[in-house]
Design brief:
alpha/beta, Rossmann fold, formyl-coa transferase, domain 3, 2 domains, three-stranded antiparallel β-sheet, 13% strand
Length: 414
């Protein structure tokens, strides 16, 4: 395609993924123009269709938030791949697809007769991406895992929370998000390699690897000191730096992340505490870490003398040019007139009215992303896909319906 209007236009992905890591990756791809065929298994389809997020107060969380957010714009094919007929359907689609993407526990695709060796024999140009918790090989590979397991085994949970308390879960499935972003990048890189060579390949992506890869300085510190430094969680502050974390303010909490000694000096002068600068030692990060508790009190007392958090951010971020921001809730971000337009789009939905959906974070000047439409009903595109891509007759499609190989739910919300 000489001049695609979107960067992944013309790429077709056969998407077996479920929950979050896989669906988020293909959500990023559908926004860039890829055709995503979401393969769902009977009788009820993808698990997240049926998950209702219930708030702590117990109020009704009726909307399947995971599904409507991460599966909009995809085409739903519900087929029983446990049957020979269902596997034949998938193999026909493999011949016309660019990518096969799955995030089952290793061994499941082999059970369905769809290993990479089989897939590559059918279509040598296809790229197969397998996302799992521990990878496709090794003694842990068959263990059941998820975002929490990846964060735990990958050392991220260990770094979150108070030093003497429980490790803290971050409140968002960032282990899955790390996996999704790495899968997105890996598949795009493999497509680039295929453009150069004509070769497909298999990608083995482990959530634990992605989580551990998110440590920026910790492994180097452990290695350089021969294990004497094994980084620990720092509570509200980043381990190894101060001030770098959350501070109580007039209206809520503010994040301040000073990087240099010059940053610290500028803030101290603005707070009116020049006594903290009388010694060269006082200007160092080492001294600040050693006196973090006392300095945190001084910073928070100053923040609470200001008339509002808006004024605090004006002083810190605009006047002093320091790294600082209000700590916003999901709703506060959604209502922010400057941040919201970049990442949130109001989209009509036949089942739920107007929804706020995430835009793509990828802002291309010549091939801009788009939100392509709502999440599909279960099996909504069975006939369209098999007729248009595989040349199935109406009679053959109806026979597969009658055998229970193809499932359609015209009432399912998505």
């Amino acid at each position: 395609m000489a001049h695609p209007t979107q960067i992944l236009e013309g790429i077709r992905i056969l998407d077996f993924t479920q929950w979050l890591a896989g669906p988020q990756a293909t959500r990023l791809m559908v926004d860039l123009g890829a055709e995503i065929i979401k393969v769902e298994l009977p009788p009820k389809g993808e698990h997240s269709r049926h998950i209702r997020i219930v708030p702590k107060d117990g109020k009704d969380g009726a909307i399947p938030s995971y599904f409507v957010m991460h599966n909009r714009g995809k085409k739903s094919l519900c087929v029983d791949v446990k049957t020979a007929e269902g596997q034949a359907v998938i193999k026909d689609l493999i011949t016309v697809s660019d990518v096969l993407f799955e995030n089952f526990t290793p061994g499941i695709m082999a059970h369905y007769g769809l290993t990479y060796d089989v897939v590559a024999q059918i279509n040598p140009r296809i790229i197969m991406c397998s996302v799992s918790t521990y990878g496709q090989t090794g003694p842990y590979s068959r263990r059941i895992g998820n975002d929490l397991v990846a964060l735990a085994a990958g050392g991220i949970l260990h770094m979150m929370g108070e030093p003497d308390g429980y490790p803290a879960y971050p409140g968002s499935a960032i282990g899955d998000h790390m996996g999704a972003l790495n899968a997105f990048g890996s598949i795009c890189a493999a497509l680039f390699h295929r453009e150069r060579t004509g070769e497909g390949q298999h990608i083995d992506l482990a959530l634990v690897d992605c989580a551990y890869n998110a440590h920026d300085w910790a492994l180097a510190a452990y290695s350089i000191t021969n294990g004497e430094v094994d980084p620990q969680r720092g509570g509200t502050q980043r381990t190894g730096a101060f001030p770098y974390g959350a501070f109580k303010s007039k209206d809520g909490y503010i994040a301040i992340g000073l990087i240099t000694d010059a940053h610290w000096e500028a803030m101290v002068k603005k707070m009116g505490h020049e006594e903290l600068l009388v010694s060269p030692e006082f200007k160092t990060n080492r001294w600040r870490i050693q006196n973090a508790d006392a300095l945190k009190v001084i910073i928070e007392e100053w923040l609470q003398t200001l008339p509002s958090d808006d004024e605090a951010i004006r002083i810190l971020a605009d006047e002093l040019r320091l790294p600082a921001a209000p700590i916003l809730s999901v709703g506060q971000f959604a209502q922010n007139p400057y941040l919201s337009p970049r990442m949130i789009e109001k989209t009509p939905n036949a089942d739920y009215g107007e929804l706020l959906l995430l835009k793509s974070p990828h802002k291309f000047s010549k091939t801009p992303p788009r939100i392509p439409g709502p999440a599909a009903r279960l099996g909504q595109h069975n006939e369209e896909l098999l007729r248009d891509l595989c040349g199935y007759s109406a009679e053959k499609i109806q026979a597969l319906r009658e055998k229970g190989v193809l499932i359609e739910d015209k009432k399912a919300k998505g």
